[in-house]
Write a structure and sequence with these properties.
Layout: E1 6-11, H1 33-46, E2 49-54, H2 62-72, E3 77-81, H3 87-100, E4 105-109, H4 111-115, H5 117-121, E5 128-130, H6 135-146, E6 157-161, E7 164-167, E8 199-200, E9 203-204, H7 215-219, E10 224-225, H8 228-240, E11 246-249, H9 258-270, E12 278-282, H10 290-298, E13 301-309, H11 313-318, H12 325-337, E14 341-348, H13 355-367, E15 372-377, H14 385-392, H15 425-440, H16 443-451, H17 469-495
Helix pairs in contact: 1-6, 8-9, 9-10, 13-15, 15-17
Length: about 500
């Protein structure tokens, strides 16, 4: 039996090779919700003391790692959450932990290890992989370890046994009604370092199956919800205890269940929370009806976000979005005309995409009444159908430990992970940078970025929430010169590229 029933959970940072650290100072940051729910479950069901280190706001030095391992006691157990973009740093942390305390028990979880569990286990720095959602599985592993029981038959895990990798049967998705509330208290010591502390997840899963979405690897397609009164209780805590003026519902789509949405928003209004904070949510164009928008207006939703991805119906069908360009346009236009701030995302580099389709998407974004938009290059994350397409085309490029698998990577490196046969490498990067520049270098958008205090999330820069405004503006000047230098370099390369499409 371990002498301490402690657990350390780590949210790794993105490596500087993937994203320059100075960019972190101006993009929004929020507590890692996945690790938070796991910590809450372990505290409630295993009576464990749990610490979370979020490297986004608290980078871990080797000295700090040693300090945390000493707190854990003998045979320390550490859980590390991995996205593909953070896998490189996660492996670095695992190696450091094993060097300091070789008897440490290191567990990987998250989207990347779920999709590729064998990869995490190959170098013996990781002892076990928790696949899919981690709350119940990790609780069973920790309980078995603490009491010295055999954990090797627990569902939903992968590990090495007798020199061979063993994948136990998967675990079904848990109902969320019995889950404890999100533990904001574990993050409150970093409250001033999070630009967006007021994040809430009221549901998991999405009934749609877009080919690029890595969320489905963890949550599946079954739509599940937390109890409405528990969700509203968390809103109340954020508003009254933590003085949050903006609350961001990070559900894939807050209006999948319209009856529940009305119940949720009515309860928010009954408690008067709509008078103390405003709300942001994500939606699909087809769901934006006048009835929904009227309710959103009454309950003080201010910003609505959706994924448009492309202005081409041909590519929309290829992405398996389950909606049309016209439906999304109509939803955005209706929301904007109703007084909401609107934001969307576009993906460039979709299989078979032509340069004309990219340029048409860029023009569409500028024609729509959008307050914010992001243009990213398609990343074929492991576990998605886009990943399988890229592999089948023999056009998948993975750098060491997946360091190039980040939507922002095109700003820092040329070896992007996927380039469709219909495009040139530099033409794709150039068009993505140009689309962002053309959208944001307009007076209305510049004004919104600098002065709108009711913007949150959606990838926009929320400068009014920064403690050190002067430093933030200096960082923006540096970023501006950094981007323009990169833009000129890519433009020259694109001009001489044979396959510029």
């Amino acid at each position: 039996m371990d002498n301490k029933k402690n657990m350390l959970l780590i949210n790794p940072a993105v490596r500087k090779e993937t994203q320059h650290p100075i960019f972190n100072s101006v993009v929004f940051s929020s507590p890692p919700l996945g690790l938070g729910y796991i910590a809450a479950y372990l505290r409630a069901n295993n009576k464990m003391e749990v610490r979370i280190i979020d490297e986004v706001v608290s980078p871990l030095s080797e000295l700090e790692i040693e300090k945390q391992l000493n707190w854990l006691g003998s045979r320390p157990t550490i859980g590390i959450s991995c996205l593909t973009a953070t896998y490189s740093r996660a492996k670095e942390l695992a190696r450091t932990i094993k060097q300091i305390k070789p008897d440490s028990f290191v567990i990987f979880g998250g989207a990347h290890p779920t999709a590729l569990p064998e990869e995490s286990l190959t170098d013996k720095t990781v002892d076990l992989v928790v696949r899919n959602e981690g709350e119940v599985t990790l609780a069973e592993v920790c309980e078995a370890k603490y009491f010295g029981r055999d954990w090797s038959n627990i569902k939903g895990i992968s590990f090495i046994k007798n020199g061979m990798i063993q994948h136990n049967p998967g675990r079904g998705y848990a109902e969320l009604d019995s889950f404890p509330d999100f533990p904001y208290d574990l993050f409150e010591h970093n409250l001033e370092h999070y630009s967006d502390f007021g994040m809430i997840l009221s549901s998991r899963g999405c009934p749609f199956d877009c080919i690029f979405c890595s969320n489905r690897i963890i949550t599946g397609k079954k739509y599940r919800t937390f109890k409405v009164d528990a969700v509203v209780g968390q809103v109340e805590k954020l508003v009254l205890r933590y003085n949050q003026k903006s609350i961001y519902f990070v559900d894939d789509n807050i209006v999948v269940d319209k009856k529940r949405f009305f119940h949720l928003t009515n309860m928010i209004m009954e408690r008067g929370l709509h008078k103390k904070a405003f709300f942001t949510a994500q939606f699909r164009g087809e769901d934006m009806t006048e009835e929904i928008l009227v309710q959103m207006k009454k309950s003080n939703f201010k910003m609505l976000s959706c994924g448009m991805e492309t202005g081409s119906n041909r590519l929309m069908a290829l992405l398996n979005k389950g909606e049309t360009v016209e439906e999304i346009k109509q939803g955005i236009e209706l929301a904007s005309s109703s007084g909401f701030l609107t934001t969307t995302t576009f993906i460039f580099g979709i299989p078979t995409e032509t340069r004309k389709e990219r340029l048409d998407s860029s023009r569409l974004a500028r024609r729509l009444k959008l307050d914010s938009a992001r243009f990213n290059i398609a990343i074929p994350y492991p576990g998605t159908r886009l990943f399988e397409i890229a592999k089948s085309e023999n056009r998948l490029h993975v750098s060491q430990e997946w360091k190039n698998f980040n939507v922002q990577y095109y700003l820092f490196g040329d070896d992007i992970p996927y380039i469709p046969a219909s495009s040139g490498r530099y033409a794709l990067i150039f068009d993505t940078m140009m689309a962002n520049l053309k959208f944001y270098l307009r007076p209305k958008i510049i004004w919104t970025i600098i002065f709108k205090t009711d913007i949150t999330g959606g990838g926009v820069l929320s400068l009014q929430k920064r403690r050190n405004i002067l430093r933030t503006y200096l960082n923006l000047v540096y970023i501006w010169f950094f981007i323009m230098k990169r833009f000129c370099y890519v433009g020259i390369k694109a001009a001489f590229e044979k396959n510029g499409n």
